[in-house]
Amino acid sequence: xKKKYLLLMIVGCLILASCAKNEKQNTEKKxxxxxxxxxxxxxxxxxxxxxxxxxxxxxxxxxxxENNVKVDVNLASSGKLQKQIEQKAPCDVFVSAGQKQVxxxxxxxxxxxxxxxxxxxxxxxxxxxxDVKVTKIEDLxxxxxxxxxxxLETVPVGQYTKQSLTHYNLLEKLQEKFVxxxxxxxxxxxxxSKEAEVGFVYSSDAATDDKVExxxxxxxxxxxxxxxxxxxxxxxxxxEMQNKLYEFLQNELSEKYFKEAGFESSHE
Length: 268
Known about the structure:
Blueprint: H1 2-40, E1 42-49, H2 53-67, E2 69-76, H3 78-86, E3 93-95, H4 99-107, E4 111-119, E5 122-127, E6 147-150, H5 156-167, H6 171-174, E7 178-181, H7 184-192, E8 198-202, H8 203-207, E9 212-217, E10 227-233, H9 239-248, H10 252-260, E11 264-265
Parallel strand pairs: 1-2, 1-3, 6-7, 6-8
Antiparallel strand pairs: 3-10, 4-10, 4-11, 5-8, 5-9
Helix pairs in contact: 2-10, 3-4
């Protein structure tokens, strides 16, 4: 009887040991699968002008789904992004709101294959709840409150603003009224919050903000053409996915979303 009981205990222990071994093997297999899945999901970095925020919010998920990739989107002023690329911050594709930034990077051989992607327009906006009137750009002299502008030297929309105001001999006359934004979205927020009566932004930003309305379309001949170039960094570590993102941002689907956000194709 004792021998039979001992035999049953030994068999039971062997079964338990076998189950434990199988469970361990299954756990290890699952962990290996998770590791493989993580490895399969690649990562790529896109630097883009802040004014592209709304359109990229629709475009990027489509690209990620199609290519099983995670896109790290860095939105800021093009001047700030230029400086980061000069320091070789992780970036694969760059969409700037100005050609100046891309040309500077080309001279340092940090980007390649640059081409025009989009066009935009400079407008003056006001908060819908205010009664300020600007029927011509000279009316800015009569504005009693603040005028929101982006940084005039480093931010593309600020540079276009400076060019236009200089063209009309208004820059020095209005400078005391300026409140400065770090980028176009920052500038727009001053008008949203009524901290500024009016502000200079892109037409695409005005189109996506229900708190403001366009008071005046700035004459395009008073500043350089507003072109958004797209380019690729020369130090990318994933050139295959870099090329895919570069091409995807130029396809018909992306063009559709860009137009919905108020941009124009550079080919039109």
